[in-house]
Amino acid sequence: MPHRKLIARLQAISGISHDDRAKLERMPYTIKNFAKGDIVARPGERPLSCCVVLSGFLCRQRIVASRNQVTSIYVPGDMPDLHTLHMPVMDRELCSVGDSTIAVVTHSCLRNVLAGSAGLTNAFWRETLIQAEIHREWVDNLGSREALGRVAHLLCEIAARLGSVGLCKEKSFVAPFTQGIIAQACGISVVHMNRTVQEMRRQGLLDWRGHTIELLRRTDLEELAEFNPAYLHVLNSPEKLVLL
Amino acid sequence: MPHRKLIARLQAISGISHDDRAKLERMPYTIKNFAKGDIVARPGERPLSCCVVLSGFLCRQRIVASRNQVTSIYVPGDMPDLHTLHMPVMDRELCSVGDSTIAVVTHSCLRNVLAGSAGLTNAFWRETLIQAEIHREWVDNLGSREALGRVAHLLCEIAARLGSVGLCKEKSFVAPFTQGIIAQACGISVVHMNRTVQEMRRQGLLDWRGHTIELLRRTDLEELAEFNPAYLHVLNSPEKLVLL
DNA sequence: CGCCGTGTTGAAGTGCATCAAGCCATGTGG
DNA sequence: CCACATGGCTTGATGCACTTCAACACGGCG
């Protein structure tokens, strides 16, 4: 199993043992590269492996009511299809947002390792629980906020998640997002997305040019978005000590 | 661990062994009753137990942008706070929709049993993955559909989930939902919810009087909602055989 | 009885979608 | 090197889905 970021995260989340860490590091994997728009997995497929995002971004998406809805965005260190270990069929399309690199680990190999370590099983289980927690935030976001707060919240979340793997210092990060993709994740049209971005610029909350996104006046932005990073700070939490 | 429905479901989902089944049945639990609106767990709490819904309905909710957003609805057989095993802090409020009964099992007891059975660990893990899958459907629903399709989809989902525990035959089920609660889950106002229900009645798709909800012309309804129960049919799927 | 929760209805306002067009940078082929 | 296509951003005009406010009807209940 590759990527120091994933291992570091599992460590932070669940405090895995030295032994387990070694097992992860010994896992065989293969690297795959994707270009913008490439499809990593299709709905209906039954993958025989899971992947870890090494660099770049993936998104999970599907056509709903003639609109492309993005249900998740995955950043380096994430395992977008970890659930296929237990639910064999891909529910939605997995797509590379810009260029990306992933590491692929076979199910059988993963199962072997997990069968031999309750600690790792729990660590991976927790990973999927954090994803569920993120989904609940998205439900709140789409159900209750209007465009400005919605976009602000999503950007805050992405910045926070990138921060925890060292890809966002302070307030700016690099990502190949288009306004269209963020619009599809926020459930609004591209046109209105554009107007919302302009409003955020006008208020001095955002600088987004090309592939660099900068969150300005971050506390104001987070207040506007009602963003509370607690749901992500299961990372680095002191709770890990009392867990098992 | 109580409730035949939960055990039957775990069995169907993951094909647990006779041994594991016995372990579940031997778990000690206590029963709690709640009335409409009672709060089962508060945000910020660190419960020392998990619960199983025995009868009635719970919902997970939170105030977002001055609106109460319902993020999940739990039916008999569900474990609304299973995630507290790994993520100690409740993120949102858990609330009884009508009258309800739950069984409470302590974390320590659950952990003991899970530590002794990889099969059960995987079965419970799968439960949380199904919840995540339901959350993704909600994201699609809130992000892409307008009111009519949204309400239709939610009602189809609830009927299907109730069906899998024998609480919905054919097309009608009993539930203490108000239009207001479904509105809060669908991210629309009560007024518009009411008009949407009337439109569904007008089209002969729905009969909802008091606590009895009847889905009429179900195939038309499911088509309108683009409802595909596959995401719930991990239940009773043949895939369980090739799983582990 | 009077109250309260739920459902229902109308009127007015708004956040957002949709359509349509134009802009700019980048890339590609003749 | 220009002609042209392409993808992303931007802008204006129009329409609609939905919200909000306000009022009323109905039944259950203390």
Automatic annotation (TrEMBL), chains A, B:
Pfam families: HTH_Crp_2. Keywords: DNA-binding, Transcription, Transcription regulation. SUPFAM superfamilies: cAMP-binding domain-like, Winged helix' DNA-binding domain. InterPro entries: cNMP-bd_dom_sf (IPR018490), HTH_CRP (IPR012318), RmlC-like_jellyroll (IPR014710), WH-like_DNA-bd_sf (IPR036388), WH_DNA-bd_sf (IPR036390). Residues 145-219 form the HTH crp-type domain. Gene3D superfamilies: Jelly Rolls, Winged helix-like DNA-binding domain superfamily/Winged helix DNA-binding domain. It comes from the Bacteria. The keyword Transcription applies. This is Crp/Fnr family transcriptional regulator. It comes from Bradyrhizobium guangdongense. The lineage of its organism: Bacteria, Pseudomonadati, Pseudomonadota, Alphaproteobacteria, Hyphomicrobiales.
